[in-house]
Amino acid sequence: MDFVIETHDLTRIFGNFTAVDKLNIKIRAGEIFGFLGPNGAGKSTAIRMLCGILEPSAGSASVLGFDLQRETEKIKRRIGYMSQKFSLYEDLTVQESLNFYASIYSLPRETRRQRLQEMAAMAGLTGREKELVANLSVGWKQRLALGCALIARPALIFLDEPTSGVSPTSRRRFFNIIQELADQGTTIIVTTHFMDEAERCHNIAFMSAGRLMAIGTPDYLKKNTLEGFLTELTIPQALAKISVIEKLPYVKECTIHGSQLHVLLAGEEQMEKLAEFTQVQPRPIIPSLEDVFIALAKRERGLREGEANA
Fold this sequence. Notes:
This protein has helices at residues 43-51, 72-76, 94-104, 109-122, 138-150, 168-183, 195-198, 218-224, 238-246, 271-278, 289-309, and strands at 5-14, 17-23, 26-27, 32-36, 58-63, 66-67, 79-82, 156-160, 187-192, 203-208, 211-216, 229-234, 251-257, 260-265, 283-284. It is an alpha/beta fold. It has 2 domains: 5-217, P-loop containing nucleotide triphosphate hydrolases (Rossmann fold), CATH 3.40.50.300; 223-309, Alpha-Beta Plaits (2-Layer Sandwich), CATH 3.30.70. Strand 13 and strand 14 (260-265) form a beta hairpin. Helix 3 (94-104) runs parallel beside helix 5. The two termini are 43 Å apart.
C-alpha cells in the first residue's frame, strides 16, 4: 500500500453550500499530516468524510486500502478518532473511560489491563485512574481523550483540533506525544489553526472556503508560495500606514505582525524605494507559515470574487 489515504475530487455539499470542494491529497504511513485553515475552511468536514462519519457528495477515496464509499465499517474499526469537542463522559473515572473505549474496540480481555496502564501512562494520569473525568483540567481531558482513541493501537488516527481551548504549555506537551506516535509508525491526521502546531507536521494542506489552496512541507510552502520578496518594517503607527503602503505600485501585500509590518515587494530591487518612502530601512525576512496563509487566503478571495463577477 503506497498511501494510507488517497482522495480524488472528494467533495461534500450541504444544500447550496460546498464545505469541501474537490479535495485531492495523498498521505503516507507514519506522517503527521495537518489540515490548516480558519474556522469554516472545511478541515473538520474533510476529516469526518475520511473517518466514514459523513458520506461524500462526490469524488472517491481510499483509507488504509479500503474504499471510503463501500467499506466504511472496515475503516471505522481500524482507526482512532478524537473529535473537536471533548466527548468523554464526565461522570466516569479515568479507568472507566479507558475501559469503555477498550470494549468499543473489542479489545481482548487478556491485553486490556496492559493497554489501560499504557494509555494512563501516556496521558500522564498514572495514579489518577480513580479520579472522575469531570475533575480533570482541559489539558488532562484532552490527553485522556487521545488515550481512548489510541487504546486499540490503530495504524491511523484522526485528531480534529485536539488542542482547541488548552494552554500553550498543554498544546506543546500534546504535540510531543503526537511526535512520539509518528516516530513509532502511526499515521496522524490533525486539523489546527495554530501555526506553531502546523510547523511540526510533515506535510500541510492549506484550506480556505472548502478548497485546497496549497500542500507541502512547511519549508517548501514558505519558500515557494509567496510571489515576491518579503521584507519587515518596524515603523511608528504601523497599523495606520498599511493602506498607504499597499497603494505603492511595487508593493503586492502589506500585513501587520505585532508591532511590525510585513511588506511583500515585487522584487528585491524595490527595497530602496520602500526605504525612501517610509524613511525606515526594510529588512529581508524568510516567510512564516502565517505569511503563507495570509497570502493564500487573499488569493482565494480573489478567485471567488473573479468567479462571482464572471
